[in-house]
Amino acid sequence: MPRLDLAVECPWNFDPGQKVHSAAACSARKDGVKCRLKVFPAGTASCARTGIQALSAFVEVISPQQEWVCKDVRYSIKLISRGPRENIKKTETFTFSSAANDRGWHEFVKHEELSESSGLLDRDWKVHLVAWVDGLPDVDLPQPQADIDFSTELNPVQILVSDGPALIFDQRILVARSEYFQKMLTAEYKESSTRVVDLRQDAQASHKCVVALLSFLLTNSLDPHMDFDLATALWAMGDKFCLRGLKKAAEVLLVDMISEKTVLRMLTLVFDTDSDLEAMCWKLLQEERGLLHDQEDQLDALIQESPALAKRLILFRDKF
């Protein structure tokens, strides 16, 4: 999931229609589709025509192909506040194409809202924007129901969970979509003969979580309204069961759930994974420098749960 950062000094000193760009980033292949953050610090030409003084912000997609389409790309743009004003964040899903390669907001924030006292400007009179883009072509994403031979015999698999009735699912789909289940159900393991997968000792494998996982195998999508606990459980399950598509889909939801209240819980899950989620958590802690001091009581619990993370957090806090 590409992350795009851009800082702009004194937006009102630009001319309407004058634009600046972030560095371009790609989702997977360096020679593939790229994206960048495009900002008009003094607004677009349409803002000037209507007399609106605003900063305009867009995500722009760049492809080496002459004709192209990227369907259902989800993107977010955030203006970071360092003061009492909350961050300004807007999110949308859009189909980018060679005919419509950028999308965003002409009036992302009005100039009258930009001030050092609000926190939307830093001491150097700069605004700091960051964007995330999800859904660009990625060669690592599995395709739904790829390589499933539905002419083979149907062998139902029983999945046991600790907090609900057993679930029954098609072994052909499990084997096609997950390396983990492929090895378990086709090699010399007891599950290959009993066709029973026992997840009752897995704390994250609740009935609700496993149902969502199996639904993802059928539809390649997740419920966008699920809560934080379910999304984090699915992220972990995607990692455990070698379901890269599930892990990525859960990550898309979790990006919008990272907040002052959830960042430490998120770090407990993603610490030392070198993932985009971990990078976003550390970025938030850096931007909200008083956060660790305000939540010092949580460090005691973290010392027991994850001593390495607690040590890193204490060292990180002491820098500020």
Assign the CATH superfamily of the largest domain.
Apoptosis, Tumor Necrosis Factor Receptor Associated Protein 2, Chain A
**Which fold name is given in CATH as the topology of the largest domain?**
Apoptosis, Tumor Necrosis Factor Receptor Associated Protein 2, Chain A
Specify the overall morphology.
flat
The CATH architecture category of the largest domain equals Sandwich
What's the helical proportion of residues?
25-40%
**Could you tell me the number of beta strands?**
12
Q: How is this structure best described in words?
A:
It is flat and about 70 Å long. Strands 2, 3, 4, 5 and 8 form a five-stranded antiparallel sheet that branches. The chain has a four-stranded antiparallel sheet with strand order 1-9-6-7, with no helix packed on it. It has a three-stranded mixed sheet with strand order 11-10-12. 30% of the residues are buried. Residues 139-145 have low confidence and may be disordered. By secondary structure, the chain is α+β, with helices and mostly antiparallel strands. The longest helix has 13 residues, at 207-219. It is built from twelve helices and twelve strands. The protein has helices spanning 45-50, 171-177, 179-186, 190-194, 207-219, 228-240, 244-255, 263-270, 276-287, 291-294, 296-305, 307-317, and strands at residues 3-9, 20-21, 25-26, 34-40, 54-62, 69-79, 88-97, 102-110, 126-134, 156-160, 167-170, 196-198. Residues 155-226 form the BTB domain.
